[in-house]
Amino acid sequence: MNSSSVNTVSEWKFSQVFGERTPGEEVQDVDVISTIDFEKKGDYLATGDKGGRVVIFERTDRLDSRNRKKLECLDHGFLKQQPDYRYKTEFQSHEPEFDYLKSLEIEEKINKVRWCTTSNGSLFLLSSNDKTIKMWMVKERKVKKVKEMDQNPSLCMENALLAEKNFAVEQHEASVSNGYRLEWTDKVGTKTSPNSQESVHKFGETSPARCRRVYNHAHDYNLNSISTNTDGETFISADDLRINLWNLEITDQCFNIIDMKPSNMEDLTEVITSAEFHPVHCNILAYSSSRGFIRLVDMRRSALCDQNARILHDSEAHGSKTFFTEIVASISDIKFASDGRHILSRDYMNLKLWDLRMEASPVVVFKTHEYLRPKLCDLYNNDSIFDKFECCLSGDGSQFATGSYSNQFRIFAHGDGSGEGITLEASKIPNSKKQHIQTSRPRRTSISNLARGQFRLGGHDNSTENGGIPCDLNSKLLHLAWHPTTNLIACAVANSLYLYYNP
């Protein structure tokens, strides 16, 4: 990474906000955004919330519709104009359910949304809650008018007569003379424009979104990841102990490629936390665990990928081990770089960049929460140590971002000697004071959080929840995404979606 790109890391500016709350406004738990994903070209942005809704935003600063000669006259600065998004549509993806066999309530909260790769211009989206995955058709390419032709008045009657002869073949003479020619010429006259010079193909979109497929009854534990494949035909879904491979066209069966469930659950040592397909090779995928491991598997080597895996693990990162060592080492999110050679991972304390050819240690480590290390005991007692922060990286793989507390997110650049990066607050006015967001629904439990009940250090004391901790633990930025081709970051704070842009 050159020095000029390092310097631009400090030029991030506020771009847009959707759903910004007023000071003191109470935010309902169902309105809190729980996932974000850009479409592969960046023309669309999808968010899911705890109320089971999916909201779609569309990029509106279209340059491709402009005349080519006008584009050639524009300067380079205009061509790199700031992306602009507008609300497009929203739909209810999931509803609350109850599993009577297991006496288990299934929340409507959307865990993940992922765009599907299509070749015909239609838009498909996968969304999931704890148990069920659905495929939605967001936009369908559909012909409204095949052709519009302008006729020369002298040729109009000629074409009508020709059509009359063609349609009148083997017709009874009376049916032809019964006003047919007049009717045809009237239609031609009313449906053509005397001024247009060329044929036009017009396409439209169907609305609203439609659920095309439902993939369910395949996971016993809570889903944490879905990832679409580059082959455009398959995707994976991962819960705490299993990863399943699906065909997009088949809803009633899937193939279990990874199963980490031991015969005796007391022997359980780690769970799956995130999984993602390789961005180039459709046969390779990676998944992370609560012990800080990243495993790379090749589905060509074995149908069952439990054993045949390359392991990336930073064995020298922790030094002397403490009670909290394994807890903070749990990887909450992984993302492949677009070139497929690097993986970005996020645990509670650090953001790490890995080279797939170097298994023993990451290429670089960015310390995101080092200032919280003396407060790990307090963070454990109030459950904040189990917060799952996501990460993302730019399209060229040179910059990285992740969330933090106090509604802040941090951006780092590969090659920046300081390794400090910059810190931005998700707000139209940086460093403004934020109201605490209280949510009434209790935290859901899953197998990945078993350690909470087994090793709790004392009782939970709300009066000292933030005592002595230099950040607002109630205002956390967990979810964010990077535009695939532009320096644009979308991040969620409660029910608000903020966009930041780096020209």
Can you describe what's shown?
The chain is mainly β. It contains 9 helices and 32 strands. The strands form 9 sheets. The chain has a 4-stranded antiparallel sheet with strand order 1-32-31-30, with no helix packed on it. The longest helix is centred in the N-terminal third of the chain and has 16 residues, at about 155-170. The chain is globular and about 50 Å long. The model is unreliable at about 1-5, about 65-70, about 75-80, about 160-205 and about 430-465 (pLDDT under 50).
Overall shape: it is globular
Q: In percent, how helical is the residue content? A: 10-25%
Q: Given the helix and strand composition, which structural class is it? A: mainly beta
Major β-sheet strand ordering:
1-32-31-30
Q: What profile does the largest beta sheet have?
A: 4 strands, antiparallel
In short:
The protein is mainly beta and 503 residues long. Helices cover 13% and strands 33% of the residues.
Which features characterize this protein?
about 500 residues, four-stranded antiparallel beta sheet, mainly beta, 9 helices
List the helices and strands and how they pair.
Layout: H1 3-7, E1 13-18, E2 33-38, E3 44-49, E4 53-59, H2 68-73, H3 76-79, E5 85-92, E6 97-99, E7 104-106, E8 112-116, E9 123-128, E10 133-139, E11 141-145, H4 153-168, H5 173-177, H6 180-191, E12 202-205, E13 210-215, E14 225-228, E15 234-238, E16 242-247, E17 255-259, E18 272-277, E19 284-289, E20 294-298, E21 309-312, H7 325-329, E22 333-336, E23 342-346, E24 350-355, E25 364-367, H8 376-381, E26 391-393, E27 399-403, E28 408-413, E29 422-425, H9 451-454, E30 479-482, E31 488-493, E32 496-501
Helix pairs in contact: 4-6
